[in-house]
Task: inverse folding
């Protein structure tokens, strides 16, 4: 892809987010219901975060282009394969005072909260959840998937909160109608982008924390109209945090008890973070091979090889692969497998030696191909595959499963209690999830732009 094409693609993404940002701003000004204002303000904050991330990406691309024109070549180091990561079942325990939770005394402090997830330039948000002292945990049912990340990924998790007792949008709720959504968005994409940058800069800034990635976005303040969301806590997850089951992670708190949006967090969260590198789910290479099955130099078997996951599968023919028959031989490929090439075989010009462990014993398998070119291609594919597995570490010990949970449902859900698991064996309570207005707002925005540009 040429430099101009890359720039144009990012600019198109920025312009798309700018249009959504402007529409969300107009919708926020026209909201007549508090629930709509909460949802619209959350959407606007998310659009601002995406614009900042894309602007950062564009700046990085243009810097690289300038360096390349100046004769500074980019690094030619081997780049590991990409993969997908998924975060699900996020639970954040709360630590209410005894007088508040057990004795039910004091004001019913209620907040609307949501999470923002950023990995590179890809940003997702969760549903809104209403939280008060009747809940012991904040539970997010969303399954968030990032499809194209490298093993060096940094997944930033940010928890935002706003008090629902505050005036959500002074002079706006109930005073304006949806017909006020008209108005020009401007015709110059440059003006839009500059305006979006100024707006997003007001609503957030590039994070400078030690645990934040180079493109992380932190949004400490919210739009001038509507509910004011504030950063309550955050953390950054990396490859070392990936495992099949649930794991507890530390949170960095960003608010104090005197804040109106404050909630009594324990300082940790529990979630399931899994990864699926492409080398584990897609065939890396397939084709004809010869496998040495016995010590006799002349005992070779023609097979159809498929390199995928932790195995080099050797079928008698390609038909056996298509008919899902069991392979003739399975050669284990692991992160510490050694691959080397020798030309000392008197029968075949070159042989590929695969040294690995099988059933806790060191085993060496000998392969050959029909042409030197095939030998080179297979050797490079094996080397690259082992390198990818070594970079993705424990993510390649086995194929992790990504479970898609139903999300964005406007139903009452039961929230299990991490609070009780750590403090008391009392039974979990039910928590109310804010009615889902995302589809409603997206429909309104879609209708608005259809009328504007058709």
Result:
């Amino acid at each position: 892809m040429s430099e101009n094409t890359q720039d144009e693609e990012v600019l198109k993404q920025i312009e798309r987010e700018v249009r959504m940002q402007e529409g969300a701003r107009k919708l926020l000004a026209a909201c007549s219901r508090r629930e709509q204002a909460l949802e619209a303000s959350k959407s606007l904050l998310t659009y601002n975060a995406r614009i900042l991330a894309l602007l950062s990406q564009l700046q990085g691309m243009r810097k690289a282009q300038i360096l390349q024109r100046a004769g500074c070549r980019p690094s030619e180091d081997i780049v590991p394969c990409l993969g997908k990561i998924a975060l699900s079942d996020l639970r954040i325990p709360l630590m209410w005072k005894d007088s508040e939770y057990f004795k039910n005394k004091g004001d019913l402090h209620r907040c609307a909260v949501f999470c923002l997830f950023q990995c590179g330039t890809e940003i997702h948000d969760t549903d809104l959840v209403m939280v008060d002292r009747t809940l012991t945990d904040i539970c997010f049912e969303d399954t968030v998937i990032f499809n194209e990340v490298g093993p060096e990924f940094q997944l930033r998790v940010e928890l935002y909160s706003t008090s629902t007792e505050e005036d959500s949008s002074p002079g706006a709720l109930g005073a304006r109608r949806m017909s006020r959504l008209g108005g020009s968005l401007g015709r110059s994409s440059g003006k839009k982008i500059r305006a979006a940058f100024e707006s997003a800069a007001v609503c957030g800034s590039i994070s400078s924390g030690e645990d934040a990635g180079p493109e992380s976005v932190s949004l400490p303040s919210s739009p001038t109209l509507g509910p004011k969301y504030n950063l309550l806590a955050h953390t950054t997850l990396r490859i070392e945090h990936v495992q099949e089951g649930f794991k507890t992670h530390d949170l960095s708190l960003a608010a104090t008890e005197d804040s109106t949006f404050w909630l009594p967090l324990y300082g940790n969260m529990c979630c399931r973070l899994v990864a699926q590198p492409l080398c584990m789910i897609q065939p890396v290479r397939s084709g004809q091979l010869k496998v040495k099955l016995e010590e006799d130099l002349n005992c070779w078997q023609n097979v159809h090889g498929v390199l995928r996951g932790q195995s080099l599968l050797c079928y008698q023919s390609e038909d056996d692969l298509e008919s899902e028959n069991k392979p003739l031989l399975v050669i284990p490929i692991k992160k510490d497998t050694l691959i080397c090439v020798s030309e000392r075989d008197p029968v075949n010009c070159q042989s590929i030696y695969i040294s690995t462990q099988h059933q806790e014993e060191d085993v060496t398998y000998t392969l050959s191909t029909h042409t030197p070119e095939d030998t080179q291609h297979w050797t490079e594919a094996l080397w690259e595959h082992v390198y990818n597995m070594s970079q993705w570490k424990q993510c390649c010990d086995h194929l992790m499963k990504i479970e898609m949970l139903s999300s964005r449902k406007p139903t009452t859900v039961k929230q299990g209690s991490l609070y009780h698991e750590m403090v008391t064996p009392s039974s979990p309570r039910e928590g109310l999830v804010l009615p889902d207005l995302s589809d409603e707002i997206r429909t309104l925005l879609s209708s608005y732009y259809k009328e504007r540009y058709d």
